């Protein structure tokens, strides 16, 4: 008898939200009204949809333990301090110019290079995955990201044997992003992972959401999704990826290391210094649900941290 073991975050197909509720894919690519609904999409996004990049095929290995968050909620509740400290950053984020957009790969690699985001997509290809997202502020959402495994970008970069970490750096443009004029923040935004974390299949380079290219407020045109960590680890609007031998000093760690560390893995038993992490508010409802260790992905990632018990893995 064949016995199928479900992953920690999976639920029966019968409990999944019907796709038509959160995304009418054919309507999305069939007319301007579908494209414009919920977010402002510019010329680059139109070209990407018309070229057939979106919607991408769904990878059915990645399911959810809850309904997908409707875009009207997740699209209007974002942390993007480059455009202000309010959660409603969509109007200000419209100033972000996403085309052309070039990604620089440097550091401990065989040969540094630059690549346009559209060229990168054509080279690697796209898929859609359903992921949970847990913010350190104790709210959460569930979204259909489009992108490709971070491991494929690592392979393309060809890091040398001395590389141990990967550092992400976002754009820097004070004229375009008013939040970057705030002097006490250590701009530009930087984040980092170990190469082992970057090589885990869950680590995802994101270029789209809800079946279309990323709207600006989500971190267009390219960001990271690391679903077992708090959301601030998933850097937005990336312009440079560097491979290093030393652990990078990250944005929030540099600002307040006692509250925001390098690892930032989700753990309900380890509170933030100013609030509990035992439960989370699901966007679009008043519901609070229990938080899961590693955000429910422990089966896939807990092994990454064996031998590191002395580290502050959950702050």
Layout of strands and helices, then pairs:
Layout lengths: L18 H4 L2 H6 L1 H5 L6 H8 L20 H4 L15 H4 L8 E6 L5 E4 H8 L2 E8 L4 E11 H8 L7 E6 L19 E5 H5 L4 E6 L2 E2 L9 E3 L12 E7 L6 H5 L23 E4 L5 E3 L7 H4 L14
Parallel strand pairs: 1-10, 4-11
Antiparallel strand pairs: 1-2, 3-4, 4-7, 5-6, 5-10, 7-8, 7-9, 11-12
Core attributes:
globular; alpha+beta; single chain; 7-stranded mixed beta sheet; 315 residues
Q: What is the terminal separation in angstroms?
A: 43 Å
Radius of gyration: 19 Å
Poorly predicted residue ranges: 1-5, 11-41
Give the count of helical stretches.
11
Relative strand content: 15-25%
Which fold name is given in CATH as the topology? Sulfite Oxidase, Chain A, domain 2
Overall CATH class: Alpha Beta
- CATH homologous superfamily descriptor: Oxidoreductase, molybdopterin-binding domain
Assembly annotation: single chain
Number of strands: 12
What profile does the largest beta sheet have? 7 strands, mixed
Mean pLDDT: 88
Shape: globular
Number of domains: 1
Q: Tell me roughly what share of residues is in helical segments.
A: 10-25%
What structural category do the secondary elements indicate?
alpha+beta
Tell me about this structure:
There is one protein chain. The protein is an alpha+beta fold and about 325 residues long. The chain has one domain: Oxidoreductase, molybdopterin-binding domain (Sulfite Oxidase, Chain A, domain 2), CATH 3.90.420. Helices cover about 20% and strands about 20% of the residues. The chain is built from 11 helices and 12 strands. The strands form 2 sheets. Strands 3, 4, 7, 8, 9, 11 and 12 form a 7-stranded mixed sheet that branches. Strands 2-1-10-5-6 form a 5-stranded mixed sheet. Strand 7 and strand 8 form a beta hairpin. The longest helix is centred in the N-terminal third of the chain and has 8 residues, at about 45-50.
